[in-house]
Q: What sequence folds into this?
């Protein structure tokens, strides 16, 4: 595959004809390649480099035992050791620090035992500040991409961003070891929300599956249609070559659902390489309580985003303390109460 299409985002999206035209080009790029690139400026590159440096310091500077202390039974934020995550029942080899919304212990949602809600077990303040700044930067880009995409479809500018007020944005900071007896990094999967924005180092390992005419794609939000493991060994994957001064962007499950499949949640997988690899994947998401309705079928089935997020994380981390506490304290009951109020 030749290079991916690269776009420059406007500072603000106003709804002009140029914005709508750019939105149409983003949609066309996703429909052809499943992924596109956004150019970054020098200040953004410094923010990315600082977050990458913090990631290296954490993964390299601490022992496994030290890193393993940064977990929480309230939230999936924190450290995930290599081999702990499963995709389609098979262990992944990435080492991860997950950053979900940092919800203080005295917040009513934590007190009320909402699943996945709690403080991030940060390694230190320097790490926290570097990651927050990077997430804020990608969050700003994510909002503009959603506005442009809405305009590109001929919809109101806030069609997608009305879902992201206090969005459940989160990030996975990843390190992949050097290839050894296995080359499995992360098995084929889709991500869960609206957009995935990512910055990778120069090593390479990510593959995406662009839309393929006539291929049925799983609806990952349905309990019996998992995207995990789908197409893992099939033809049709493209290597995402590392490129400097860009972030990559592709749609997640909620955007596939909202658009009735006009945009597909891009399947992707990671193979290990001959050098260790660092990358950061940021997920731009609806509010935890958002009830998402398909644009073309407002009376059809809905996705309750917090329920989708919780079931996906329980599936990836069946043995984690967080999952056990959700089950032991019957925290899923809170989700069914939230659904019935919505
Ligand atoms: O390693 C990558 O580039 C992507 C990682 C990924 O798919 C994820 O964290 O969900
Ligand atoms: Fe992913």
A:
């Amino acid at each position: 595959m030749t290079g991916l299409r690269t776009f420059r985002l406007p500072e603000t999206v106003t709804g002009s004809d140029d914005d709508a035209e750019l939105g149409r080009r983003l949609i066309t790029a996703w429909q052809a390649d499943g992924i596109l690139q956004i150019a970054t400026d020098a200040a953004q590159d410094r923010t990315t480099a600082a977050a990458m440096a913090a990631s290296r310091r954490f993964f390299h500077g601490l022992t496994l035992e030290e890193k393993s202390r940064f977990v929480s039974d309230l939230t999936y934020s924190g450290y995930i050791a290599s081999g702990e995550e499963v995709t389609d029942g098979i262990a992944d080899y990435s080492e991860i620090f997950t950053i979900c919304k940092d919800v203080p212990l005295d917040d009513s949602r934590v007190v009320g035992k909402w699943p996945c809600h709690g403080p991030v077990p940060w390694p230190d303040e320097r790490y926290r500040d570097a990651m927050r700044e990077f997430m804020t930067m990608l969050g700003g880009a994510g909002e503009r991409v959603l506005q442009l995409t809405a305009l590109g479809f001929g919809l109101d500018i806030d069609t997608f961003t009305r879902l992201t007020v206090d969005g459940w944005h989160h990030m996975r900071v990843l390190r992949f070891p050097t290839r050894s007896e296995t080359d499995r990094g992360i098995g084929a999967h889709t991500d869960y929300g609206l957009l995935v924005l990512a910055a990778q180092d120069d090593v390479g390992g990510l593959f995406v599956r662009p839309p393929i005419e006539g291929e049925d794609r799983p609806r990952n939000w349905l309990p019996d249609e998992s995207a995990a493991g789908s197409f893992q060994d099939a033809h049709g994957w493209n290597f995402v070559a590392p490129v400097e001064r860009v972030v990559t962007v592709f749609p997640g499950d909620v955007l596939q659902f909202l658009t009735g499949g006009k945009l597909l949640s891009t399947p992707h997988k990671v193979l290990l390489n001959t050098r260790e690899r660092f990358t950061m994947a940021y997920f731009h998401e609806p509010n935890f309580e958002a009830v998402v309705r398909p644009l073309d079928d407002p009376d059809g089935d809905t996705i309750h985003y917090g329920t989708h997020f919780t079931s996906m994380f329980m599936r990836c981390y069946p043995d984690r303390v967080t999952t056990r506490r959700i089950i032991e304290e019957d925290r899923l009951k809170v989700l069914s109460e939230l659904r019935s109020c919505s």
Summary: The mean pLDDT is 96. Residues 125-152 form the longest helix (28 residues).
